[in-house]
Amino acid sequence: MRNLTLLTDFYELTMMQAYHNAEITTGRRQTAVFDMFYRENPCGNGYAVVAGLAQVVDYIKELAFLEQDIAYLRSTGVFGEEFLAYLKTFKFTGNINAVPEGTVVFPGEPLVQVIAPLAEAQLIESAVLNIINHQSLIATKAARVCWAARGDRVLEFGLRRAQGPDAGLYGARAAIIGGCYGTSNVLAGQLFDIPVQGTHAHSWIMSFESELEAFRYYANLYPQSCFLLVDTYDTLKSGIPNAIQVFSEMRESGIALEHFGIRLDSGDLAYLSKRAREMLNDAGFPNAKISASNDLDEYIIAELKAQGAEISLWGVGTRLITSKEYPAFGGVYKLAALSLDGGEWQNKIKLSEDPVKVTNPGIKKTFRLYDAASGKMKADLIALATEEFTNDCDLTLFDPIATWKQMRLKAGEYIIRELLRPVFVNGECVHTPLTVPEICDYAARERATLWDEHKRLVRPQLMPVDLSQKMYDLKKEMIEQLRRE
Length: 485
Known about the structure:
Low-confidence stretches: none
Oligomer: single chain
Strand order of the largest sheet: 13-12-1-5-3-19-20
């Protein structure tokens, strides 16, 4: 674990000092509710996959201002000694609720809910957004890539192109949660107990007098997992024939060929893979796998699948680890309610000329509704924390913008569950950590509850995210009141 207490924007600390000074001056303490959510699905997707909660938990556990932190803040000349003395004894004392990692989520619904003294809740904003935004972006991108691969294994190969060590490490973690089978990142494999895989580079081939010699040496060293990169010189005239010769020699020497094949890293992957399949089959190696890399993404994979490419293992690097065409998740952290000295909650709302930026006020719950027969998702419902819903009564949902669009669910024909779960209570962690493989299993079950229409790469059907009647009425009333004022 690392102490990331100063991983925050400067204005979070200046606001903290102002809140602290106001509390001392008035003798009154404010408690706040902040929601972390996002407004638009990344990559033009129909959903997102939330990831990063484990790192948020570690961050909160290690939250403390060290002596060197206090000295640095003093050196800025901005912070008074009374505030710095408060920071010396700082500890997070609030509550955090969050959606479990791997959960499929949609715009507008809280992914993380913080209920804490205002200064504490304000401090953690930047780090929470940094962690959840990055990993959720990569997990969502990986889910798209894996969907395009249609059941083929996808490996994350992006370490050397990631924007720094942390992006490579936690991006690999997120990619696995999003559906990738393994990674080339050895540190990620060690820390997160995920499969690591890789073959060899062109430099391996070029370091020998001949391609055949390089293949033979590699096969002798790794006979149980022999994948040969065949495009260093000439894929069809040299690489594949030499690979076939080595496979034949291995078989003749009594080696059981089970996990073996070739990798294509350039050229027309559809054409080359089909020719490679023919050549391997003719040589008696129908079970040899053909893997491919070379700046792949979900669109290229989908096109190659449509063209009948004979590829069953995909190595995806740059465009996955950087989410190249959609570089930011866009999560925000907004105030939803305030309480003075433990008194009644005052609901808060942010207005905007842009309707999508108008926030939902108050302390909230999110409910997910499934079709009882198929187990597929029907809709999400954002409600007030005081509301309860069960599947033993009829339920009518309506679009909060186009209110005439309604969905009527009959008792017993739907299943309902609440998404937010306690993570910290009064500053103490109550979260049961899961391993990354356990999170992956959960995430796979989550994605399986989506209809195919919501998984389309282009113009997917959007899942309804509706407001309860009480939430809708509260929001409408507050908007009208602010307009009058």
